[in-house]
Task: structure prediction
Amino acid sequence: MLDQALVQAHDQEVDEIAVAAAHAQQFLRQPAGAGKAAAAPDLTVAIVGLGYVGLPTAIALASGGVQVIGLDSSAARLTAIRSGAVDLLDSDSELLSKALTRHLDLTTDAAMIATADAVVICVPTPVDAHLIPDLRPLATACASVAKHARAGQTIILTSTSYVGTTRDLLVTPLQARGLRIGADVYVAFSPERINPGDSHYAHSTVPRVVGGVTAECGERAAAILSRTTERIHAVSSPEAAELTKLFENTFRAVNIALANEMATASAALSVDVTEVIDAAATKPYGFMPFAPGPGVGGHCIPCDPHYLLWQLRTQRVELPLVESAMRDIAGRPTQVVTRIRDLLGDRGRSVRGSRIAVVGVAYKPGVEDVRESPALEIMARLRELGAEVGFVDPYVRSIRLPDGTEVIGWQPLQELAEALDLAVLHTRHPDTDLGWLKAVPTVLDATYRAIDLDHRSLV
Result:
């Protein structure tokens, strides 16, 4: 019975994708000006927000022959994009250079939204120092889109937020202007699924979930997004799509917290946790490997589950498992600092006056992105304890700590090694030589993967 149910579920998903694709092709074949979201050469899509999600989205659309208006409130960001001084895969950097000569126009003028056939909103949704969702960037962007929207447009929100955001921040203000949803304008939510620095999963191969306010809204959104991906998975509403994204990243948060706890258990039992994880990952079903580390960075895992928890608190609904996982993630940098104190103490040294290097400060390998990186909190806490703290990262020239202090990366490595009391391996970038760490008396391997360092210690 279970196998039969799985087959039926698979067939249903295939049917949904096929229907969405068919509708998309129907719209794409229609000429511009026919009242549908067309994919003719003069189709214009405005991308609101050109950060780690918006810029790759703009590049993908422009590479598909769509005319793209790239809108960002930061003139400095647009200057960086024009010069190519942005954090992209090499393949995307090449595509950006081509797009800027033909299909991608950059502007800070929100009034340009009115000239587009479709609008895609890709702005960040962070949390504040108290882990409360900060909706100001998203609310500002949606208000601007609602103000400049015109009849015939398809508006797609991609920013991760609480369930109901699409209706609250887009549908309600559009209706207040007298625009009928599903008749005058078409609104949908389609969560972004971009993994910065990952070339394995291309934009075109990652399925997009789409939830329209009406069936027509969903079909028109699918028509636009089918220009960037091979697969569309339609859901019944924006709320279903919004919760899909929250579930995806909450799933990851819970499993990372579990991996951290398993690392603690392994240490207590004198077992190598990476060996255990690698062995468990050989099971072809029922297991997905997650790795322990110094904490979690970026604007997804450390932030997104808090949007769900925040919303449910207003309804007096508790999610103890998720709350515990998020506490573990938030407290992980403190555990790293505690371990540093213990290791230095074993050598008869105090943190105060010790010279410590954090090796790799980006939140993940292969990127220069330091948003929510645990390294920032680790360095700040060590400085509070009186340590002299710097960092080494081939991808990052400088960072700014939570108190506003700017720190420039340390060089040269061999001379630095001989002057250090301890090094924390926080992020191991690909093709980076860590041989110099062998000269550092104490190395804390927070990646759990530096097996080539015989004298390493683990968190």
Notes: Residues 238-268 form the longest helix (31 residues). The CA atoms of residues 259 and 292 lie 5 Å apart.
